[in-house]
C-alpha cells in the first residue's frame, strides 16, 4: 500500500470452525412419549460446564417429572407425558439483508433465551405485520454477529456475502441449563423435527413445550425447577 494511502475496506471474516469438517457421529433420538436417547455425545455437562457423564448411551428426561434429573427414571409413564408437537403450522425462515450481514430468523424454533434483545437491542426486534423484524444495520456488524452466535436454539443465524454461517462449535456435548432446556452442540437429531442447524439447538426438558422436541421457553412460564421432587 503506498505511504499515506487510506486503509482498504474492512472485511468481515467469520467462517465455520475448521474442526467442523468430518463426521458428526453423535445422535439424539426423541423416543415416543418418552425420554431423549443420546448416543456418543462425548460429554453431558451441567450449567457450570462440568462434565457429569460421558457414557455412550444416555436416556435424558424430557417430561419434567423425573426425580433424578437430568436422567429419565420412568416417570413419564405415570405423568402421561406426550411427545406430540402441539403448535400448528410452520413459517419459513425470514431473511433481513444488511450492508454486510444478513440476519436469518427461523422464529418457529426460538427458545426465547433473550440473548438477542440483550446483545443488540437496536437490531432485534421490531414487530411489523404480526412478525418480528430484524434491522442488521442498526448495530455494528461485529455486534450483530457476536449476538447471533449467542443464540442457543439456532433460531438466529447469519449470512456473509450470501453464504450461510451456521457452524460455531468443534466439540459434541449436551449442556443442562439450570431450570431450563438442553443445549445441544453437534449432534444429529433423529426423527421428523428438524433444527435450523445441527451444530447447535435446544431441546425441551420441562415437558411443557408446544413445539416438542424443541424448547419454546415454556420452562420459564411454568417455573420449571431442577429441585428434587419437582
Note the beta-strand portion. 15-25%
How many individual β-strands?
15
Name of the CATH superfamily of the largest domain? CDGSH iron-sulfur domain, mitoNEET-type
Total number of domains: 2
How confident overall, as mean pLDDT?
91
Description:
A hairpin with a 5-residue loop joins β12 and β13. By secondary structure, the chain is mainly beta. It is built from four helices and 15 strands. It is globular. The chain folds into two domains: 27-86 and 171-221, Ribosomal Protein L9, domain 1 (3-Layer(aba) Sandwich); 94-165, Alpha-Beta Plaits (2-Layer Sandwich), CATH 3.30.70. Helices cover 10% and strands 25% of the residues. The strands form four sheets. Strands 4-3-12-13-15 form a five-stranded mixed sheet, with no helix packed on it.
Please outline the helices and strands.
Blueprint: E1 27-30, E2 36-39, E3 44-45, E4 51-53, E5 57-60, H1 75-79, E6 94-97, E7 101-105, H2 115-119, E8 124-128, E9 131-134, H3 141-148, E10 156-160, E11 163-165, E12 173-176, E13 182-185, E14 188-189, E15 200-203, H4 218-221
Parallel strand pairs: 1-14, 3-12
Antiparallel strand pairs: 1-2, 2-5, 3-4, 6-7, 7-10, 8-9, 10-11, 12-13, 13-15
Which properties best describe this structure?
230 residues; mainly beta; Ribosomal Protein L9, domain 1; Alpha-Beta Plaits; 5-stranded mixed β-sheet; 4-stranded mixed β-sheet
